[in-house]
Input
Amino acid sequence: MPKDGSEVVSLDGQGKPMWLVLELTYRCPLKCVWCNNPLDFDQYADKELSTSEWKRILREGRELGALQLGFSGGEPMLRDDIEELVEEAERLGYYTNLITSGVGLTPERLKKLKEVGLKQIQLSLQSAERALTDRLVGARAHDLKLEVAKRIKAEGFPMVLNVPVFRQNIDQVEEILALAEDIGVDYLEFANIQYYNWALLNRDELLPTREQLERAEAAVNRARERLGGKMTIYFVIPDYFETRPKACMNGWGTIHLTIAPDGAALPCQEVRVIEGLEFPTVREHSLQWLWDESPLFQKFRGDTWMAEPCRTCDEKEKDFGGCRCQAFLLTGDAANTDPACAKSPHHHVIEMAVSRASKPHEPKPLIPRFAGAAAGAGR
Amino acid sequence: MSEQLTFKPEDKPALSPMFLLRWEKTQDAHVLLYPEGVIKLNGSAAEILKRCNGETTVAGMVDELKALFVDIGAGEIETGINKFLETAHAKGWIRSR
Output
């Protein structure tokens, strides 16, 4: 998601997919309970695009005006062609970002990635405490992540440390800040998780309380004052606690293009949660057709699809009616106003979720990402 | 907010290593690229940032831009440069060296 909307907006209006994210694989050694991959992630392993197919996307994307490129997943390091793809992307003139859990980012591969010109690495970390990280991601990953973080800095990469935030770790903001400062992180991003797929399954246990959020934000503000320009700290507030929705993807099909492991071209990474849409792939179509002409990308582009209260709302240019996936998941119709908006007639579903999660209750066990879940979840 | 730093004429601002400045044909403009972000620059911003190389002084920039933008008054150029450097510094694009 773009971090600095005001500046990115200046690039709008030209209809170019400036942000290209390649989800190289949904495979991952971790089992995070907030994973944003589809519940049926295990159905894609044998459909993954080949190296030459990814290279074709890189070329076509650049012709369409893509500039920022994210290699994501799943865990992208599980692909053994990532170095080759970064090299090709650099040759084509992208700004290359690697988004990784750190697992598989060995010293040798890191060195090679530096050699082929990778620009920056976004590493995820879930807590300041070994036992908690390991429990949340379902693997012994904490020590490895710290080791990888130090290696990334030693190789001279700019680094974003991405901390997904939820009830279990939100009270550790200060400890995580100290850890990041110690490592020499350039950008620290506290990203309150968004509730789709696995996170939605576990929402009652993951949503923080408003008090927790306020404390965390205060800690972030104190750190910003103390650190000045030394480290840039982002704190992404969860839309569940706002009265206006997020400007999701800066508008459907305006700047963002995701390619899923099977080659489906998507306006956002979560969009397959919306039922009744078709998801054509780069195997059958050119990227240009998918972006400019496919029914999927036209579906919610612009504002002609909007119903009330969005249609006549004076803020529709600002937030584009919020998130289509959230509208579908929580109201049953993707064309509805995102219920995170207080003007939505469905806003109570958000308020109820927050209130239910904040009340003392018997904790439910967290459901880790696991293969074969799609049938069990009723999909 | 950290204290605003005003660049002195002898200072040599440098682009932060976190940022990459380059010409982008598809935008017909210079762009500033950084982790997960893109900033499209207008002509004068690009001319200033190109000179944030750690070697050119602010005074040198003023002279060079005066020669480049002959239609604009000298005072206006100097004020414009200083104002832009302040903004660029506040945004973390450049450092003082």
Summary: The first strand of chain B starts at residue 14 and ends at 15.
